[in-house]
Amino acid sequence: MDLEALGLQWDGDVLYQSERTDLYNDFLHAQLAPLAYGCNCSRKSLNDYAERQGIPTSPYPRLCLPRHLTGDLTGHLSRHLSGAGYKVRLQLADYLLGFWDGIQGPQWQNPQQSEGDVVVRRQDGTINYILAASIDDGLQNISHVMRGLDILPMTTAQISIMRAAGLPTVDHWAHLPLMLNAQGQKLSKQNLAQPIDSAYPSELLQTAFTLLHQPKVDLDTPERMLQQAIVQWNMSALVGKQTLGIGE
Questions:
Q1: What is the domain-level CATH number for residue 74?
Q2: How much is the pLDDT for 95?
Q3: Residues 170 and 216 both lie in one domain
Q4: Host domain of residue 202
Q5: What is the distance of C-alpha 163 from the center of its chain?
Q6: Local confidence band at 73 (pLDDT 50, 70, 90 cut-offs)
Q7: By C-alpha distance, which of 123, 35, 120 is closest to 73?
Q8: Selection from 181, 154, 132 nearest residue 20 by Cα
Q9: Are residues 124 and 214 both part of a single domain?
Q10: 8 located within any domain
Q11: CB-neighbour burial class of residue 110 (10 A; exposed 0-12, middle 13-18, buried 19+)
Q12: Strand, helix or coil at 196?
């Protein structure tokens, strides 16, 4: 595995979100039930509605919410969690939430106004990242989260979900700058970015530390290089940066 070749290890057993669907659905049926509702709006129907009303499609205009508010809550949600043709949306907090980002600085956002009622379960039963991450992080008492800047807009949504689920929230957030291709797109499989080549892990780590604007690390085994990098890690070199590239 690439992580092992790079000297990266993990604590305890690896949890696979694909194997925890029942757990996520349990939270939807219980703690999150007052905020969850089924939705069968297609992208086309939403676009048609938005065109007729002269409004944007985001955030979601809550076309399916009235059925949730006027019907039997438990029965309504149970049918839509188990029935085909329905996605499940979650109403996010409608007030200002803030947190300190160790790289991007202070952040304030009203998750309901910015994200609306987010889809947390797709029509095929797949659980979306935001719900899975919220429950997994809370149940594991995760205190520090470092991830890509592209996830930053969803952070207040995650805080909102964790609070609604009665789970402890994350204490420290840090959203890393993104690497972009020549077209200004984030490097990802979706944009056909090439996978890393872990055949030369030590050289790969050196490149990574350079991109992260960290002090030079001696070429050695990956394990020793990581230990040196930890000792001399300098978060201030990343503060305020939104993109990464050699020579910046």
A1: 3.40.50.620
A2: 96
A3: no
A4: 189-244
A5: 16
A6: very low
A7: 35
A8: 132
A9: no
A10: no
A11: middle
A12: coil
